[in-house]
Amino acid sequence: MPTTRAVRNSLTILASAAVLSATVVGVAGATPPGIPSAATAKSDLAGLTVKADGSLDGYSRDKFPHWIDQGNSCNTREVVLKRDGTNVKTGSDCAPTSGSWFSPYDGATWTAASDVDIDHVVPLADAWRTGASAWTTAQRQAYANDLTDPQLIAVTDNVNQQKGDKSPDQWKPPLTSYWCTYAEMWVAVKAKFDLTVNTAEKSALTDMLGRC
Question: Helix (H, G, I), strand (E, B), or coil: what is residue 206?
Answer without folding.
Answer: helix
